[in-house]
Specification:
- The complex is a heterotrimer of chains A (293), B (311) and C (430).
- Chain A is mainly alpha-helical and 293 residues long.
- Chain A is built from eleven helices and no strands.
- In chain A, helix 2 runs parallel beside helix 11, helix 8 packs antiparallel against helix 11 and helix 10 runs antiparallel to helix 11.
- A two-stranded antiparallel ribbon of chain B has the order 1-2.
- Chain C is an alpha/beta fold and 430 residues long.
- Helices cover 48% and strands 15% of the residues of chain C.
- Chain C has 17 helices and 13 strands.
- Classes of the chains: A mainly alpha (293), B mainly alpha (311), C alpha/beta (430).
């Protein structure tokens, strides 16, 4: 059995610069070539989206999809913004609280399941985790019935509740693995000092959890932001978040692809920014909960 | 009340709200779905009379559903396998800490931030056999570029039940799009794993005369096993529930070569009003998820996912 | 100890509060919790009209409605989705859950009758038809599609024609070809085009309904309007020789379609005709809107149309209608909306924008383009037949199964298997 050294503990810094092995120029060049080729593959769809979004409708054909637009037209962005704008607020009201609440719920569950193991805790964990696999399309009807019964149907809070609950499995899993990396001795020490379950949570676990919150937060933020099925079935018209508005840009028979692409880019912007600016912390956060899977 | 009993009861009380919520929203609703799947509710008007296993028998004899099971099998295996492979390759590349690797890391990560609906449409264009990537391939002198998701070929073509069993070539296009979107997740997780491996361990092996490849195979890979486990669990969950991507990208496909249970369930329930058949599909999907994951969670997964004491 | 207990209590309470978030949360206005008081009159209109022309048409109607009824506010609850699938899922879930919108879009025919009406969720509208004098303003064939046991259940707003063959005008002129009137002529034309290296027929069956759409027109051409309708009443069986003949013709036609048909939707297929890569396309006349509005092409210069071969005396009807669900809060206001929809004024506001023709036979033709004028003339004189692919001719269960049979047939071309499948599916006909 491997023993895991201190370096992987939450918050521990890993400094590898001093031991980076020397590399020949050829290897370096090959590495760059590999990364550039992969990047080209990853960026290809973005090119298509951007180019299409700048075209006039008559220029948008499958045959000309790689060509640059003949006339730059930002009209599609204007249309897209107009249509998406009002729904952006809904999405913010939805995503921010849902992400925060869901992260805290997951953190509390993860903390208990990792550090306050009671009889049947593993079974309970499996019980919670299995919720991840429910095909959501099949439960829409009872879900709507239930939300109506508690008066949250067609409200953003109702949608928040749904996202928090169906987020329990994944957030619990992530946080459980994260807290597992906190050495038992730290908890034990606090316990000897007389701290209770919540005391240890607020004084020890939470302060150490920032990287965990980053990972879970990013995950929940993007999945709730992009979620469509619940959004479209639980909310109507003015309550609908931006992903539904994005879908609503396409008609029952005719789709204006330039507007569609411009809108898709606009709607993806916040999540994109999150990844670009927090990508580093994302990996770092994963790392601090790492090596325990 | 003594301190001891409190410390026993408290964790249970704290986790109770989540457990209750999951009990209702997951298990309660699954119960409802199972109930519907054994009823005669196959018109719009609800008819909850008991039908036994009729709907399941129908499904397993259904051409479309048999195709779906085949497609899901190949899709999941390829999707997860390729995500692991590319994820690891990209993680190793980025971990070399060359100048600009942060940029590349973000490039590999960003597809995760898009919704499958958007991805589906763009990839549908790129892999359109008469345009898209094939225009580039033709320009490069490829005479017979692939048909991508329009292909109806299935290799090897074994006759099983009502369908031809084998790898539907068309599904490769969907796999490609899905790998594009999710391999960043595998990369991030592996990258975290790689950066967590203490350099001294590898250094020691090198001193003992191990080649880079040996270090990677004998030291790095085994240490990454827990990462692999968590990636696989996450990706199984993504692949068995695939819906938006296929729906936006290819639809069910010619002769259902790219159809998946999620799409079938949605269409048959809401387009055809076969509520009981749709519920039966959902139950089969759940059972499949359970078969694949639960044994792992309960036995060997315990070691990787459940053991908590770092000693 | 006691302290620990209290903390846990607080924590549990917090947990419960978290789980029940929002109960006390925002007081955002919503459709379900109607605030009591003056602003009680609001109607929610559910449709899948979110695309360019159709959304404009709906907005136009709403504006007109607000002018006439400033006291009623209108909530336009449109949900997009390829040919309304998402919308149908949302609507089905809401209806099953007992939360109907005040009125909603539904295709005329069995999509209306076998679902909402069969489930007893709709109110009959005979009184409205009488009081508004609509009985002779809509064609009888159309009213029949909205009726069950003598009760009329919805108000039709527009008409699209399904049996239209669009062709590239220049390609036909350059090659001295005439648009085909019979299937034999079709195959002659197709051979000639193929010899020139032009794809004769464009198909985009990424969404399976387009293949069914093509096939139902062949069925109509082979069987004629009466034989076609008999398929759904049980007078004619689905293993009829006519069905076999139609399948054989369909199979032969499929030899002339573009290779990448499974990768295209109807719009991409129509595009092939617009750009001259393909010569013909069978589609509903919403394709006209795509040609003229989106691509700015001209009738009888860039594109032309004829009825699908051998269906010259028929008009395959696709009609959007709105009904009155039971148990809604604003019944009176909703009836006012339905009155507007059925009025000549309302139809002439909506249809020119949507690119369809009015369901009424007394509309003001000067507001419509040349294609629509011709279609309006045909609508009055030809035999009206219900579309399968668009839910009018048969129950959704049958349509779903038939789409499956046709999807497999397009690839495998096994006529016997297809007939077997259609006969099995006909068990869903009610």
């Amino acid at each position: 059995m491997l023993t895991l050294p201190d370096v992987i503990r939450p918050g521990a810094r890993v400094d590898k610069s001093k031991v980076t092995p020397s590399r020949s120029r050829l290897t370096t060049a090959l590495l760059y070539v590999a990364m550039i080729l992969l990047s080209a593959f990853f960026l290809m769809p973005v090119y298509v989206m951007v180019v299409t979004s700048l075209k006039l409708p008559s220029e948008v054909t499958l045959e000309q999809m790689w060509q640059l637009p003949r006339h730059l037209s930002f009209a599609s962005y204007q249309t897209a913004l107009q249509k998406l704008g009002p729904h952006l607020a809904n999405t913010i009201y939805l995503v921010v609280p849902a992400t925060i609440i869901s992260s805290f719920v997951g953190s509390l569950n993860g903390y208990i399941l990792a550090k306050w193991r009671f009889r049947g805790a593993d079974m309970l964990f499996t019980f919670l985790l299995f919720g991840m696999f429910v095909p959501y399309q099949s439960i829409l009807i009872p879900l709507i019935n239930f939300l109506q019964a508690i008066g949250l149907y067609n409200t953003i809070p109702g949608l928040i509740l749904v996202h928090v609950i169906y987020g329990i499995p994944i957030t619990t899993l992530m946080f459980r693995n994260f807290y597992a990396a906190i050495p038992e001795s730290v908890i034990e020490a606090a316990r000897i000092d007389g701290a209770g379950i919540m005391g240890i949570y607020t004084r020890i676990a939470l302060p150490l959890s920032l990287p965990g919150f980053v990972v879970v937060g990013i995950w929940q933020f993007t999945s709730i932001w992009n979620e469509f099925l619940f959004a479209v079935s639980i909310t109507h018209s003015t309550q609908q978040p931006v992903m539904v508005a994005l879908q609503n840009l396409s008609g029952s028979q005719i789709v204006q692809w330039n507007v569609q692409m411009a809108a898709a880019l606009l709607a993806a912007l916040p999540t994109l920014l999150v990844y670009i600016f927090l990508g580093r912390f994302y990996v770092r956060g994963l790392m601090s909960g790492a090596l325990k899977g | 009340m003594t301190r001891l009993s409190w410390s026993r009861v408290a964790p249970i009380l704290l986790i109770l709200p989540s457990v209750l919520a999951i009990a209702v929203f997951v298990y309660g609703f699954i119960g409802w779905t199972v109930y519907v799947s054994m009823s005669n509710w196959n018109t719009f008007v609800p008819d909850l009379s008991f039908a036994g296993l009729k709907n399941y028998i129908f499904l397993f004899q259904d051409y479309r559903f048999q195709s779906d099971l085949r497609n899901t099998l190949f899709f999941s295996v390829l999707f997860i396998g390729l995500c692991l492979f590319f994820g690891l390759a990209m993680a190793v590349l980025v971990d070399q800490r060359l100048k600009g690797s942060a940029f590349f890391r973000n490039v590999f990560l960003f597809p995760m931030s898009l919704s499958f609906v958007v991805t589906g449409v763009v990839w549908q264009w790129i892999l359109n056999p008469s345009t898209g990537i094939n225009l580039l391939l033709k320009a490069l002198g490829v005479d017979n570029p692939p048909l991508w998701f329009v292909s109806t070929r299935i290799v090897p073509a074994w006759q099983v039940g009502k369908i031809t069993f084998g790898l539907p070539v068309a599904i490769l296009a969907v796999v490609l799009a899905a790998v594009w979107q999710m391999s960043g997740y595998a990369m991030a997780t592996y990258l975290a794993g790689l950066q967590g491996i203490p350099e001294e361990v590898k250094e020691a092996a090198r001193v003992d005369g191990a080649s880079s490849w040996q270090v990677f195979r004998l030291i790095t890979l085994p240490l990454l096993r827990p990462m692999t486990v968590s990636i696989v669990i996450m990706l199984i969950h993504v692949s068995l529930k695939t819906f938006d991507l296929v729906y936006a990208m290819t639809g069910p496909g010619a002769a259902y070569v790219t159809d998946v249970p999620g799409v079938y369930m949605f269409e048959t329930t809401f387009r055809g009003n076969f509520f009981a058949n749709g519920a039966a599909i959902a139950v089969v999907m759940l059972v499949l998820s359970a078969i694949v994951t639960v044994p792992y969670l309960l036995s060997r997964g315990r070691r990787d996912l459940f053991d908590v004491d770092v000693t | 100890m006691k302290v620990a207990g209290k903390r846990i209590l607080v924590a549990v309470l917090c947990g419960v509060l978290l789980a029940a978030t929002g109960c006390g949360g925002s007081k955002a206005p919503s459709g379900t919790e109607e605030p009591t008081g003056q602003k009680a009159k609001e109607i929610e209109i559910f449709s899948w009209w979110t695309g360019a022309g159709e959304a404009a048409g709906l907005e136009g109607l709403i504006e007109l409605f607000k002018e006439k009824h400033p006291d009623i506010s209108v909530n336009n609850a449109a949900v997009a989705g390829g040919a309304g699938t998402n919308a149908k899922a949302v609507l089905a879930s809401r209806m099953q859950a007992g939360d109907p919108p005040d009125t909603f879009q539904v295709h005329a025919g069995h999509e209306l009758l076998d679902t909402w009406v069969a489930a007893g969720k709709m109110e009959p509208l005979n009184d409205l038809y009488e009081s508004e004098g609509w009985m002779d303003k809509f064609p009888k064939d159309l009213i029949d599609m909205l009726s069950k046991d003598g009760q009329i259940y919805s108000v039709p707003v527009n008409i699209h024609r399904g049996n239209v063959l669009f062709y590239n005008y220049k390609l036909f002129a350059e090659n001295n070809l005439n648009p085909p009137k019979t299937f034999d002529e079709f195959f002659q034309v197709a051979e000639a085009l193929k010899a020139k290296g032009i794809t004769p027929l464009a198909l985009g069956d990424k969404e399976p309904w387009t293949a069914t759409h093509l096939f139902e027109n062949i069925l109509l051409g082979v069987l004629g309007p009466d034989g076609y309708k008999d398929l759904f009443t049980g007078k004619k069986k689905w293993d009829d020789p006519g069905v076999r003949e139609a399948l054989e013709i369909f199979k032969r036609m499929l030899q002339y379609v573009n290779d990448d048909h499974a990768a295209r939707n109807w719009q991409d297929a129509a595009q092939l005709v617009a750009t001259g890569k393909a010569a013909m396309n069978v589609m509903g006349d919403w394709a006209k809107g795509y040609f003229t509005t989106d691509l700015k092409l001209k009738l009888n210069e860039d594109w032309g149309w004829v009825p699908v071969p051998q269906t010259e005396n028929c008009f395959m009807v696709i009609s959007d209608t709105f009904g009155l669900p039971k148990g809604i809060k604003n019944r009176e206001a909703t009836i006012e909306w339905l009155k507007l929809l059925g009025s000549r004024e309302g139809q002439d506001v909506f249809n020119p924008l949507k690119g369809s023709i009015p369901a009424r036979v007394d509309a003001d033709t000067s507001k419509y383009d040349d294609y629509s004028k011709a279609a309006m003339q045909d609508f009055k004189t030809k035999a009206l037949t219900p579309s399968i692919a668009h839910g009018s001719a048969a129950s959704p269960g049958f349509v779903d199964k038939m789409n499956q049979v046709i999807n497999v047939f397009v690839t495998k071309g096994d006529v016997d298997e297809a007939i077997k499948g259609l006969v099995e599916a006909s068990a869903e006909l009610k």
